[in-house]
């Protein structure tokens, strides 16, 4: 046990003071002293009653001892003025806190600031530079904790400075001064608050201090916004009259998929290395057993691991890129990331698609080699499809740059994913497939390859901060790597893409969008009329506006390619499509027809549709009757009811599709 000095005890009675010394309790263990005090009260007849009183007790997690407060003199820092300056810096726009929703938390903490207790009774840390001064004659006699001697505490940078001040205060030679430095150390957050400038040599005006302080960005977690961030701002303003940084980005907190904080005591901690390299289920179980979790918590954690990872035999190896992009994609939700490893596995699929898709695109280049003037001449013979993708690339560059500048990482993932999958691969790649392999049009093929090269080069650079490893590997594989003037050796030091205003082309985007809508209509007509995808069909496109006619005519080859058309006829009023054509309306001014004559066995398809409708109708009626019966809904197992509802939706959808096809055939 530890012997604590108890303060002198004074007992007051109506007749006066009974005991103001309390010397008989000095040096006792605190538990023994409590019994002794009780006996002393009994002796003087002042013990009124004794009864149990429930209370909350704190216990040390390591030793199991009861934790009890003991009143001691402490050192405090007055924060009123510093807190006001920190709030004003945000209010005036000199300091940005992002996301902005955390500004209210910042103002709440600082507007209710109190004197900051910086004393800590620990063995490690920066010792408080406060010295109690006395003369040699007073040593061991004078009480340094007494209020009447508060003025003898001297705060100084070093002991010699404190000794000089003490000699002047006491009016004695420095040789007669005895200094006793406070044994407490500074609060960790006090020392951490000095970090931005103290590590640069402050208070000396060093080259590092002038070169690296203040900095531009602090990235940290919301949970230490007040404890650390506010203290750095306050102390930098107070001691250097400068803000330590311009932006504070508060990243999301990573929790488990149920929203609980990851904690060793819950057994739900996921090591990032286990996600990157993979981890077997047995290894996860062994990690739980090797800790100090209670058996109940071990069983609960094992059940959670089994439910999540048993199907895959553990955590699948996802790689660093998938983990990075997965975590960043989560940040669109708000302050917390409820991490589901299955979602990270989903982004591993995106990285695989990026790898496979880019390698396929690389196969389109053949003997193509980029040139130094390629970028400046790319529009010279560009087709509408080329102008379309370059304009979309410009948009992607601007939006990604803005997202990263504003720390909207989740949105940047969406922008990049949408461009690569939805625009570059699903649209442009499909449009240029017949072009890049067309030996009869070398100019068009070379133009498409040059455009594709510029798109891939810029896209990989945009994605590199998020997925550094796969982008470096793919960027190095682009044709002509190392042959261009002033080219960087690595993507990580290559110039950031900059949008070229000359590439902006709203007309090409609108025109291509219309053509894509027409292609979508043609594919729907094929599906509705049971036309095989690989069998060419005759299409007719009727336009009532000249702009639509011009747009589609300019890209008639693209429509032909993606709709698998044998012929495409532009209809000009009053021309009409032939009989037995199926119609799909694209816009108010554009209609797409497909000639079904000879493409389908009409009587056979009609009979097939009628047969399916006849089979489905009684099944639907039976299920509808079940769903309309309250008794069935109340007594049947929920799983059975859900299964019947699912069947009803399925049968109804099939019947509607058959009726739609029948109507089209008729």
UniProtKB/TrEMBL annotation:
It is an enzyme of class 6 (ligase). The keyword Aminoacyl-tRNA synthetase applies. Residues 65-340 form the Aminoacyl-tRNA synthetase class Ia domain. CDD domains: Anticodon_Ia_Val. One of its GO terms (cellular component) is cytosol. Residues 641-666 have a biased composition (Basic and acidic residues). GO terms for molecular function: aminoacyl-tRNA deacylase activity; ATP binding; valine-tRNA ligase activity. GO terms for biological process: valyl-tRNA aminoacylation. Keywords: Aminoacyl-tRNA synthetase, ATP-binding, Cytoplasm, Ligase, Nucleotide-binding, Protein biosynthesis. Its EC number is 6.1.1.9. Residues 386-538 form the Methionyl/Valyl/Leucyl/Isoleucyl-tRNA synthetase anticodon-binding domain. Residues 634-666 are annotated as: Disordered. It catalyses: tRNA(Val) + L-valine + ATP = L-valyl-tRNA(Val) + AMP + diphosphate. SUPFAM superfamilies: Anticodon-binding domain of a subclass of class I aminoacyl-tRNA synthetases, Nucleotidylyl transferase, tRNA-binding arm, ValRS/IleRS/LeuRS editing domain. Residues 604-666 form the Valyl-tRNA synthetase tRNA-binding arm domain. Belongs to the class-I aminoacyl-tRNA synthetase family. PANTHER family: VALINE--TRNA LIGASE (PTHR11946:SF109), VALYL-TRNA SYNTHETASES (PTHR11946). This is valine--tRNA ligase. The lineage of its organism: Eukaryota, Sar, Stramenopiles, Ochrophyta, Dictyochophyceae.
């Amino acid at each position: 046990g530890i012997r604590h000095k108890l303060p002198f005890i004074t007992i007051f009675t109506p007749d006066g003071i009974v005991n103001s010394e309390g010397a008989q309790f000095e040096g006792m263990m605190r538990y023994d002293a409590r019994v002794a005090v009780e006996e002393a009260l009994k002796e003087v007849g002042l013990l009124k009653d004794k009864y149990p009183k429930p209370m909350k007790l704190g216990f040390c997690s390591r030793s199991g001892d009861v934790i009890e407060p003991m009143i001691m003199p402490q050192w405090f820092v007055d924060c009123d003025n510093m807190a006001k300056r920190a709030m004003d810096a945000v209010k005036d726009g000199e300091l940005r806190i992002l996301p902005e929703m955390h500004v209210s938390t910042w103002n709440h903490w600082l507007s209710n600031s109190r004197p900051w207790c910086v004393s800590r009774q620990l063995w490690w840390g920066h010792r408080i530079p406060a010295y109690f001064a006395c003369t040699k004659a007073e040593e061991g006699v004078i009480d340094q904790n007494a209020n009447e001697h508060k003025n003898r505490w001297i705060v100084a940078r070093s002991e010699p400075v404190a000794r000089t001040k003490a000699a002047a205060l006491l009016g004695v030679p420095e040789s007669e001064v005895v200094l006793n430095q406070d044994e407490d150390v500074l609060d960790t957050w006090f020392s951490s608050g000095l970090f931005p400038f103290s590590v640069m040599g402050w208070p000396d005006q060093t080259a590092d201090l002038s070169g690296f302080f203040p900095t531009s960005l602090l990235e940290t977690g919301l949970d230490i916004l007040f404890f650390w961030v506010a203290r750095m701002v306050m102390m930098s303003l107070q001691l250097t009259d400068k803000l330590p940084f311009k932006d504070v980005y508060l990243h999301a907190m990573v929790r488990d998929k149920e929203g609980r904080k990851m904690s060793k005591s819950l057994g739900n901690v996921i090591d990032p290395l286990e996600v990157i390299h993979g981890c077997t289920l047995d290894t996860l179980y062994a990690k739980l057993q090797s800790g100090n979790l209670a058996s109940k918590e071990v069983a609960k954690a094992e059940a959670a691991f089994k439910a999540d990872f048993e199907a895959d035999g553990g955590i699948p190896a996802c790689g660093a890129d998938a983990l990075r992009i997965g975590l960043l994609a989560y940040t669109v939700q708000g302050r917390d990331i409820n991490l589901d490893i299955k979602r990270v596995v989903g982004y591993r699929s995106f990285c695989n698609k990026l790898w496979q898709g880019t390698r396929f695109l690389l196969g389109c280049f053949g003997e193509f080699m980029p040139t130094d003037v390629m970028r400046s001449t790319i529009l010279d013979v560009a087709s509408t499809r080329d102008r379309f993708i370059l304009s979309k690339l410009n948009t992607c560059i601007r939006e990604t740059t803005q997202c990263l500048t504003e720390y909207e990482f989740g949105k940047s993932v969406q922008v990049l994913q949408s461009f690569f999958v939805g625009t570059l691969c699903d649209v442009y790649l499909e449009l240029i497939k017949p072009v890049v392999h067309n030996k009869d049009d070398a100019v068009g093929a070379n133009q498409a390859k040059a455009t594709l090269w510029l798109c891939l080069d810029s896209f990989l650079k945009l994605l590199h901060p998020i997925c550094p490893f796969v982008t470096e590997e793919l960027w190095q594989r682009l044709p002509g790597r190392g042959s261009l003037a002033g080219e960087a050796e690595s993507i990580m030091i290559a110039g950031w893409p900059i949008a070229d205003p000359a590439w902006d082309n709203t007309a090409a985007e609108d025109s291509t969008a219309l053509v894509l809508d027409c292609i979508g209509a043609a594919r729907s007509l094929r599906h509705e009329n049971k036309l095989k995808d690989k069998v060419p069909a005759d299409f007719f496109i009727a336009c009532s506006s000249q702009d639509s006619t011009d747009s589609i005519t300019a890209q008639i080859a693209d429509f032909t390619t993606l709709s698998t058309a044998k012929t495409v006829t532009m209809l000009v009023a009053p021309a009409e499509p032939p009989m037995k054509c199926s119609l799909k309306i694209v816009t108010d001014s554009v209609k797409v027809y497909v000639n079904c004559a000879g493409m389908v066995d009409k009587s056979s398809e009609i009979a097939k549709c009628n047969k399916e409708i006849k089979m489905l109708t009684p099944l639907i009626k039976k299920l509808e009757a079940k769903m309309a019966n309250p008794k069935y809904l109340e007594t049947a197992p929920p799983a059975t009811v859900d299964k019947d509802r699912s069947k009803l939706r399925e049968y109804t959808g099939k019947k509607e599709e058959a009726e739609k096809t029948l109507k089209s055939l008729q």
